[in-house]
Amino acid sequence: MNKPVEIPDKYEADKNRYWKVSLSAAPFVASLLVICSLALFIGIFWTVNEYQAYRASIENIKKNYNVQYKARVRERLDKVVDFIDYERMKSVFMLENDLREKVQSAYSMASHMNSLREEESVEEIKTAVIELLRPVRWSNGRGFYFVGSLEEGRTLLFSDDPFFEKKNGVQLTDKQGINVTNEMINLIKENDAGLFAYDLVKPAFPGKSFPLVSFVKHYQPFGWYIGAAMYSEDLENSLKSSVLERVQQMSFGKN
Which secondary-structure segment (H or E) carries 156? Predict the structure, then answer.
């Protein structure tokens, strides 16, 4: 008796065919996975490398910019400092020249009055010259005249503060206690004229000193030294205001 023929189930046939196809495609799939993995690894490596190169480039740019900008700022700062030094030197030169001219004017006036003397005595002419110089001021009242006697070592005129008149060098001292009158007399004996700076101490203002810049010249006919002085603190403040105004107008770059 013949056995009945078994007909394979359709699902089992499809299943066997699928596994056959899967086994044959396995090498391709594995290769594809390897390629994709390599591509992903290369992509990540390239991205990280580019990012690091980008960061290094940015840091280098920042560093170069900071170095160049600092150099530029220092250059501009040096120019401002040079400008301040120039203005200060110019101010000192102009002050010395101005004081020299004021003394020369007083010198010429004293010489002229002495040459016109007829019946007046020398003492009368001296008094007249002193009284003519007493009210004279310049530079908004910062400048004034003073006169001293070489022989007596006394201040005959100190128009800004009459307290010092008729007094000797013991009363006219700077903040270090140096005898200003003697220093001026020594300067005149050595050079006949010159610039003299000191910090004046006034009894009416204890604990405070007043920086003065003066120019003195020997007036031989009267045995005098004639001087013109200016308070340098006022001059410094004026110079500071002028320089600050100019500096505030300076700029470079976008700012």
Answer: strand 154-158
User: Residues 107-121: pLDDT tens digits?
Assistant: 999 999 888 877 778
Among residues 221, 231, 230, the alpha carbon closest in space to that of 129 is found at 221
In terms of C-beta density within 10 A (0-12 exposed, 13-18 middle, 19 or more buried), how is residue 120 classed? middle
Tokens of 104: 């020369």
Tokens of 189: 């004996």
Bridge partners, 200 (sequence order): 174, 210
Indicate the average pLDDT of the chain.
Answer: 80
144-159 tens-digit pLDDT:
999 999 888 889 999 9
> In this structure, what token pair is assigned to residue 196?
């003299």
Cα–Cα nearest to 36, from 47, 44, 48, 24: 44
